[in-house]
Amino acid sequence: MREREFWELLEEVFGRTYGRSLSRDQELNKLDNMTVVEALEAGQEPRVVWNVLCDQMEIPDAKRWGKDHAAPPLPAA
Q1: How many CA atoms lie within 13 A of 19 on its CB side?
Q2: Which of 17, 32, 34, 38 is 20 to 30 A from 44 via CA?
Q3: How large a percentage of the chain has pLDDT more than 90?
Q4: Closest Cα to residue 14, out of 69, 58, 68?
Q5: Is the dihedral of CA 4, 31, 34, 77 positive or negative?
Q6: Considering only CA atoms, which of 76, 30, 77, 21 is closest in space to residue 53?
């Protein structure tokens, strides 16, 4: 997942205004309490940040990938 795709999904799943607010205000427990913006700036993979955010906000798998309902491939190890 590219960062651009992350932001598109954020708006699609949470809505533009609420999604942008979440990205600045919601602390992600599994990522040292960084916000989405902080985690991305720190170099976290967008897919990891997305999954952590969705898990924390209790977004089911069927809804977290937007209209495509297909998760992007995992990053290479």
Answers
A1: 15
A2: 17
A3: 75
A4: 58
A5: negative
A6: 30
